[in-house]
Amino acid sequence: MNRKSKIVVKIGALPYNIGWMYRPRYNNKFAAGVINYFEQTIDTYVGLAPSVEWVNLWHEYLHGILHNAGYDNHDEQMINALAHGICQVLTDNEITHRPYDPTDRPETEDKEPNTPIEKEFETDESRTDPNTLAT
Questions:
Q1: Ramachandran area for residue 123 (φ above 0: left; ψ -120 to 50: alpha; else beta)
Q2: CA nearest neighbour of 63 among 45, 25, 36
Q3: In this structure, are residues 79 and 63 in contact, taking their beta carbons and an 8 Å threshold?
Q4: 8 by DSSP, 3-state: which?
Q5: In CATH, what class is 8-97?
């Protein structure tokens, strides 16, 4: 469908027009949402409740993000889990809507160590993956 919508979301460098349809189709079957990478459109089912529609759109945004990164075989269950999780974090935590302001942070209780952080990663045997900051 070649149409222009007033509602546009950028995924990476590309703008996608968002539209509503009564019967969005993917592989000739009804789908609640469909992203078309070639036409740069996202169609969502017109009958969804607003909160379900929001999760549905995030589902399609995630497909777009992964497609831009070169991943084209997406596990739908994983995409659904991520879409629901992202929407929950955004809804429940207003602070996630923007970067943290350094003035909002409390003073740190520990002292800046004298050794470079790279040295600590090399010698900390308790870490399972030295390439991550998480333990």
A1: alpha
A2: 36
A3: yes
A4: strand
A5: alpha beta
Across the range 6-22, mean pLDDT stands at 93
**In DSSP terms, which residues pair with 26 in a beta bridge?**
29
For residues 123 and 115, the answer to whether their CB atoms sit within 8 Å is: no
Per-residue pLDDT tens for 73-123?
999 999 999 999 999 999 999 888 888 787 877 777 777 777 777 776 665
* The 3-state secondary structure of 12-55, one letter per residue: CCEEEEEEEECCCEECCEECCEEEECCCCEEEEECCCCHHHHHH
Is pTM beyond 0.85 here? no
Q: What is the mean pLDDT of the chain?
A: 84
Length of the chain: 135
CA-based diameter of the chain, in Å?
63
Domain ranges of the chain: 8-97
Alpha-carbon span 125 to 22, nearest angstrom: 57
Tokens representing 65? 């993000």
